[in-house]
Amino acid sequence: MEQQNVRIFVGFDPKEVVAYHVLVQSIIEKSSVPVAFSPIALSNLGGIFTRQRNALQSTEFSFSRFLTPYLSGFEGWSIFMDCDMLMRADIAELWALRDDCYAAMCVKHDYQPKIDTKFLGQTQTKYEKKNWSSFILFNNDKCRALTPDYVNTATGLQLHQFKWLENDDLIGELPVTWNYLVNEYDYREDAKNVHFTDGGPYFEEYKNDDYAEEWFAARERLLFAQQRA
User: Fold this and answer.
1) Recorded GO terms, molecular function (predicted)?
2) What is the CATH number of domain 6-223?
3) How does pLDDT run across 137-158, given as a tens digit for each residue?
């Protein structure tokens, strides 16, 4: 049976609550297909996600994101997204790129971060496959290795470098415009989903970055409520 809606799991962190809601708004207002959202919030994962926080984690969902296939019942497809993103295109365009040959699909970035410190003074870690896991299309049935036990015990690199797959041939490649790294890459008008990976416009030091005006405009639309005439 064809999946009736696009399941989207978004990382949720109390340090940047507004990011989650603006991203969701940007997806809803551009989508031509039904969408279903689930926040990956630690407060909702009691008894499922039990690992201790790592000092190198920049967000609460650094590792819990890999529970997406489990939370989807290992059925169909699901999308995981970091919250510090802004959708600029119809999510149906991405959904149409699903390929059952792969267990997961992502943008295969190949870059070295330009900065050593990102939002709230956190260390910008550098490793192979950096930012691949910030935006993933999961073919859930082929990701059964990602049990709660594995996600709770595997190393950070095992998770973020997709070591839970038999080989890298199972990772499909998405166009870079679907996870376009603000500041790391030059401005592109055709970027479909932008990622404020250094820090979102809601942090004072990043409020003038590329695409920030669009983010603030989406926030204003989020706050809209029609008043009595």
Assistant:
1) transferase activity
2) 3.90.550.10
3) 999 999 999 999 999 999 999 9
How far does Cα 186 stand from its chain's mean position? 20
- When comparing pLDDT for 118 and 198, which is higher? 198
Q: What is the four-CA torsion angle of 15, 86, 132, 121, rounded to 10 degrees?
A: -30
DSSP labels for the chain?
----SEEEEEE--GGGHHHHHHHHHHHHHH-SS-EEEEEE-GGG-TTT--PPPPTT-SSTTTTGGGGHHHHTTT-SEEEEE-SSEEE-S-HHHHHTT--TT-SEEE-------S-SEEGGGEE----TTTTGGGEEEEEGGGGTT--HHHHHHS-HHHHHTTTTSS-GGGEEE--GGGGEEBTTB---TT-SEEE--S--TTSGGGTTSTTHHHHHHHHHHHT--PPP-
pLDDT confidence band for 126 (50 / 70 / 90): low
**Hunting for tokens 């999510």 — which residue is that?**
91
Domain boundaries, the chain: 6-223
**Per-residue confidence band for 130, with pLDDT thresholds at 50, 70 and 90:** confident
* Closest to 64 measured CA to CA, from 76, 85, 82, 78: 82
